[in-house]
Amino acid sequence: MSIKRTLLAIFILSAIALGFFGAKTLGKPRLVILPDATSLAENPDVKGYIDSAKIVGGGVIIKGWAVNTNLLKPAQRVILYINGRRISEISPTEIRPELPRVMVSKGVEKAGFSMTFPQSHLGALPGAAEVRLFAVHDSGTKELDYPTGYPFLKSRDLASRMEIYGAEVSAIRQQMSQMQSLLGDLYETMPVRSATEPHDPATTISRRRIYLTARDDYQVLDRGQGSFNDTSGKQELPCSEIPSGKRTAVLLIFGQSNSTNQGQGRFNPDTGVYNFNFFDGKCYVAKDPLLGTSGTKGSFASRLGDRLIKAKVFDAVVLVPISVGGTYMEDWTLGGVHFRRIPVAIKRLAQKRLRITHLLWHQGEGNVQHMANPEAYKANFLDMLNAIRSYAVNAPVFVPLTSVCGSAPYEKTRRGQRALVDPARGIYPGPDTDGLGFNYRYDNCHFGSAGLDAHAEMWFRTLKHHQNAPPGDPGIRVTAKIIGAKPAPAPAPAKVVPPGVEVKAEYLGYGSTDRVISLEKGKATAADGDSALGPKITVMNDTSQLRVHILMRGQVTENNSFVVAGFREGETSPDFLVSRKGSPGEDLIIDENLTIPAKIAGTISFDVRVGLAKPGGRLFVNGGPEKKGSWATPSHIAIKEK
Q1: Neighbours of 328 (CB within 10 A)
Q2: Parallel/antiparallel/unpaired status of strands 248-255 and 316-321
Q3: Exposure of 128 by Cβ count < 10 A (0-12 exposed, 13-18 middle, 19+ buried)?
Q4: Prior bond to 97 cis, omega within 30?
Q5: C-alpha count within 13 angstroms, C-beta hemisphere, residue 92
Q6: Which end of the chain is less enclosed by CB atoms within 10 A, N or C?
Q7: Exposed, middle or buried, 585 (CB in 10 Å: 0-12/13-18/19+)?
Q8: Spatial CB neighbours of 527, under 8 Å, sequence gap ≥ 6
Q9: Sign (positive/negative) of CA torsion 532, 538, 542, 545?
């Protein structure tokens, strides 16, 4: 934003603040007689408002704010009176993000308060109590203003002042809305927050501008991923024709393939759903395939938008899909290969006066097996979110549980996703899409038509709940069971050898163990543990690469490591060794894909041993006690030629 426009923004904000809070009264202040007959000088600089007064579980909760408009600080205290009796007082300390924007000062951001008292203080008769609140600063006082419908007033003068104030607030909100629409790029200079701090949109970290260049074109942003950008069959409309306000949702959708156009079955929403193409910065009537994301098939997002409109959750929904199939968390974090898509989408939305209201993240299928690291997933996500917040995007972000793509849900990836949820940071739970099994996926990974419908329904329930939830609500995790999805059929046993590769394999046996394996500095010997599987493989080429899939589970009773090691016949050092640490009570799963060189042409005998690093817990290969659940197929440590 230019200096001239910045000064204009400050001028308008200051004008609103002056109209809202008034000029300082000159001359000798008059006395105010408090309900308990105490007299204090009136302090005209003190202003405040009661937001809500609710009876909850036998108690009364009153919330509001109080400031000194001359010193630009919170009031020193707020005093509560019930029927003329002084009950309690409190110092405002709670964050109110809208106050710094109106008063152009961060000094007033912690001017909120919340007072609680027993419902019995109101008396036995409904409406018999009069509850009044006064703000005090520097030995001066001012009664707070009350909202329309405030239930604890008896005096006509208070009630009439309440109605006047409600009209003033509505007018001010309208002025601010018009101002933000006029200035547009003020969007990018409003206070922002860090994803590592409490979710307060007024917490400033940095005010980073987004600068677009000639390189922000399709070729650079797409990076050969085949993102859909064909507008020939699309109906364009001016973005300004899309309704604005609280009843319009702008959904930024990012992640990997199950949030792209990779679903089976295209869908065309009815009226009210729009598609913003971040490649050209234009708006279109939404229909599959959606502009901006990879793939040319169907999307859950078009169905979601239609569902939100028909249920009247919103009057208009703008879909902004920028996802890329086959990507990893590392691709989207700050500095990742696809990160640039995010600021470009934010900037081009801001240029059209469209502000993001929801961030829908869907990624995890790529970060399984050797790519799974819960701590790294969380750190990379927060780096990405910190950058997004630095562009003044304070919308809530929803993180689903998603890891299924041709295999069972992968707990290590899900643990990283689950650890991110923190409503205090504006991070809420998304749906658990892993519950939509193979009967909802046309290739055991991507959703078929029924899967897209179910996926959209899960997101619909997530957003509807959030839209109607009170402040501080932790959100909900929508599962397949909640939406009535049928359980997935058991996957067919995997083939030991890919078609066309000449390899023979013979399995010698399998079982379970609770034996102990020694791990001295990460080493294991051929005599350690219990032999679980002993495959023999005939390899035709000594340059072949063998893929080893390890699948095992166990119950941990104390801090321990579960181990799988594979030895060639006659060798004392393992060809592969996988160790996983667990905590007491954890149902630990080892699910890893490894690649090892064949080294010889001919028959290779492997002795695969499993065990515990120290006593504590039980391991199960190929199942275990039925009450603990079991694997679907009999052979789970398999070696395949690549």
Answers
A1: 19
A2: parallel
A3: exposed
A4: no
A5: 33
A6: C
A7: exposed
A8: none
A9: negative
CB 172 within 8 A of CB 20: yes
Backbone angles phi, psi at 449, to 5 degrees: -60, -45
Mode of pairing for the β-strands spanning 397-401 and 358-362: parallel
Radius of gyration of the chain (CA): 31
Average pLDDT, the chain: 79
Which of these, 155, 456, 437, lies nearest to 286 by C-alpha position? 456
- CA 328 vs. chain centroid, Å, equals 17
Nearest to 431, CA basis, from 479, 381, 383, 364:
479
Residues β-bridged to residue 607: 567
- Any idea which residue has 């209201």 for tokens? 357
DSSP classification of residue 523: B
CA dist 471 and 198 (Å) reads 14
- Cα separation, 375 vs 397, in Å, equals 19
92-132 residue pLDDT tens: 988 888 788 667 678 888 999 988 888 878 776 556 688 99
Task: Give the distance, in angstroms, between the CA of residue 606 and the centroid of all CA atoms in the same chain.
Answer: 44
- What does each C-alpha distance from 33 to 24, 49, 136, 141 come to in angstroms? 21, 20, 13, 10
Cα distance between the two ends of the chain: 56
Residue 251 pairs in a beta bridge with: 319, 358
**C-beta of residue 285 within 8 angstroms of C-beta of residue 274:** yes
